[in-house]
């Protein structure tokens, strides 16, 4: 059984509108010249089905690597097909509110649904919430970011009405903005705009006239980092982030060739969450493991995506 709070699958990729599939292609100075795929397996099966549905782009330059942009509706439909083929029983519009425990062993979960409360028991419970919701409710160990400090949430949005060819001529081949665009953002902040991040990303999408914008950097009204595990902070994040998305859309409309007739087509169903609670597992993947290229004999996943640190006005990639 798959339990999902929304009426569709995809998590941050769909609800958070994080519309790129990251980590498929090698990342290096050499790899920047052409896309060379490194990750296959299920990721490639899903990407191929998205391509067959017309819901994904060709590889796009992202610094020293490549990414692809998907259409969130296509993602939902392809996910439906995969689940149906697997014979999964899907329960949408349901959330976990408690965990059934036998001492320290998880036996199942308590759900809140449109029909009221219910219990599902299971031999194995997989916490795929992204926020360690089951782990937290079971009283098991978790950590929050680095000493309690989490990376900034982002409200990704899709402008429509864009002359994509003209915008790409101005923006260039890299989806990461150029130093010249960063300076334009800095200058705009002296002329009445409120654009806290000066390094932004624009991605072409599979849909004509629409692009994907990753730009916002969210802090609380008191300039503190907001914690997505707190419903008060998360509610503040949603409201402030939508307003900030509008401000970046105003900048694009006013200062980006090809965007003069653009409008905000949609924002994420929820703020895009980069970091909240993380389960403390039997072993832990650390930054040093990635930077030192540690390999494991029992490894099952390959991803060449860089480490991202989203804090301050210019996110860092390593």
Write a structural description.
The chain is α+β, with helices and mostly antiparallel strands. It has two domains: 2-81 and 147-267; 94-140, no CATH class. The protein is 25% helix and 20% strand. A three-stranded antiparallel β-sheet has the order 2-4-3, with no helix packed on it. It has a three-stranded antiparallel β-sheet with strand order 6-7-8. Strand 7 (105-113) and strand 8 form a beta hairpin. It starts with a strand and ends with a strand. 32% of the residues are buried. The mean pLDDT is 93.
Give the quaternary arrangement of the chains.
single chain
Tell me the number of structural domains: 2
Q: Using DSSP, what is the number of strands?
A: 16
The neighbouring-strand order within the major sheet is 2-4-3
The major sheet is characterized as: 3 strands, antiparallel
Give the structural class: alpha+beta
Helix percentage range:
25-40%
Q: What sequence of helices (H) and strands (E) makes up the elements?
A: EEHEEHEEEEHEEHHEEHEEHEE
What is the distance, rounded to the nearest whole angstrom, between the alpha carbons of the first and last residues? 38 Å
Shape: globular
Radius of gyration: 20 Å
* % residues in beta strands: 15-25%
Low-confidence stretches: none
Return the average pLDDT rounded to an integer: 93
Number of helices: 7
């Amino acid at each position: 059984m798959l339990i999902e709070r929304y009426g569709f699958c995809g998590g941050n990729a769909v609800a958070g509108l994080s519309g790129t599939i990251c980590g498929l292609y090698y990342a290096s100075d050499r790899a920047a010249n052409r896309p060379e795929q490194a990750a296959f397996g299920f990721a490639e099966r899903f990407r191929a089905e998205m391509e067959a549905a017309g819901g994904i782009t060709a590889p796009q330059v992202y610094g020293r690597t490549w990414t692809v942009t998907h259409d969130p509706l296509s993602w939902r439909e392809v996910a439906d097909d995969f689940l149906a083929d697997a014979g999964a029983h899907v329960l949408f519009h349901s959330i976990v509110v408690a965990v059934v425990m036998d001492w320290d062993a998880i036996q199942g979960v308590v759900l809140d649904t449109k029909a009221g409360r219910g219990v599902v028991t299971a031999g194995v419970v997989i916490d795929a919430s992204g926020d360690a919701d089951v782990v937290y409710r079971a009283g098991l160990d978790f950590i929050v970011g680095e000493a309690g400090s989490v990376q900034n949430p982002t409200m990704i949005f899709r402008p429509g009405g864009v002359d994509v060819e003209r915008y790409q001529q101005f923006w260039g081949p890299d989806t990461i903005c150029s130093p010249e665009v960063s300076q334009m953002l800095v200058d705009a902040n002296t002329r009445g705009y409120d654009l806290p991040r000066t390094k932004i990303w624009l991605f072409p999408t599979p849909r004509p006239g629409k692009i994907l914008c990753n730009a916002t950097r969210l802090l609380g009204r008191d300039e503190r980092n907001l914690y997505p595990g707190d419903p008060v902070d998360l509610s503040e994040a949603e409201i402030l982030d939508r307003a900030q998305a509008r401000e970046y859309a105003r900048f694009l409309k006013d200062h980006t060739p090809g965007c003069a007739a653009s409008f905000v087509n949609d924002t994420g169903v929820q703020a895009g969450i980069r970091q909240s609670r993380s389960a403390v597992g039997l072993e832990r993947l650390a930054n040093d493991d990635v930077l030192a290229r540690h390999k494991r004999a029992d490894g099952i996943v390959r991803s060449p995506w860089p480490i991202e640190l989203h804090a301050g006005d210019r996110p860092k990639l390593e």
